[in-house]
Amino acid sequence: MKILLVVLDGAGDTGKETPLSLARKPNMDSLAKQGRLGLLDIGYQKDVDSDVGYLNILGCYSKKEYPGRGYLEALGLGLNPDPKDVCIRGNFATLDQRGMLADRRAGREEIGLQELAERLDGTEIDGVKFLVKKSSGHRLVIMLAGESLSEKIIPNDPKRTGVPVPQVAAKSSDAKRTASVLNKFLYRANKLLSSDPINKERKIPANTVLIRNTGKPGKTVLFQKRFGMKGCCIAGIAIAKGVARYLGMDVIEVKGATGMPDTNLEGKAEAAGKSLKKYDFVFLHINGTDILSHDKKPDSKRELLEKIDKLVFSRFTNPKDIMIAVTCDHRTASSPSYKGYEHLPDPVPFFASGGKIKAEGRPYSEQECEKSRLRLEGNGLMEFLVRNSG
User: Fold this and answer.
1) Cα separation, 343 vs 369, whole angstroms
2) What's this model's pTM, rounded to 2 decimal places?
């Protein structure tokens, strides 16, 4: 039996009434009522990172085999790093006139970011060459090529605004050279970005770069070998594509799949339907729900969930020989009253319908999933789906 796994990034929320529980989503609820609800404890500790979430949901996460988000983001852009290269996932960001961090995402405005990345690309410092590529939204990938480089650095992202941006530091003595060349690169980047005329066209300038996550090339047991299924991924953001490529899955590109709330939902749904004829497993990722959570727009998040229900799940209300599962990679706090970091480590709600699974007759929401006795941990969702696929 074929499996369609839909990950609604950050869709699970917190509170008595959430966008997911308030949304009018007859198609999703119909599928949920035909199946079984539960909670998946991905096992987040201090950090709640989507790449770890995707790997766990896909049943393939191992600390020993985890290459770091920087490398996965690079794969998502179609790059092929050398084993000695260090890959970094970063943000275009904004410093105010005092030199304090004013916006960690440069307003999420993408105007001119492609050109700014191209300005930084090809920089060479102390024998280290910097490849710089714009990634999804406000993100960019920086790939360092040279000798004696290490990914063991402390990023300069303070993860809050209104404070100065620190320098990159080394976690160990063998990373001092890497930290040094990165700080020189960031100094050059700040000067170049601050004076670039493109920033005059933007509402919020992208005048600095935050270093967030590193990584180096690694290997893992491929998805098909692990589960005996040929899989593909349909996504708009680089990190979801990168995780899929790391696991040996094909990536299906969809025109207009932006990873933003305005993404081409109809195109992604059509691609998923076609892919189920060719592949055993389809990983369909939708990112807009996470964007609206970060932007503290719960009403817009609810409206997007309703749009997803209409444009995506209406195509799969009566599937034959297909198991459908829906979940999210982490919970979020979309309420403007919540002042902490939006990603939450709480177990995420999911449902699965089809195969051997017996109908429980309940709609999909955090509250209904919390009532369920079904609790899965870590990589357990894929094991559950395979075991019940018939």
Assistant:
1) 19
2) 0.93
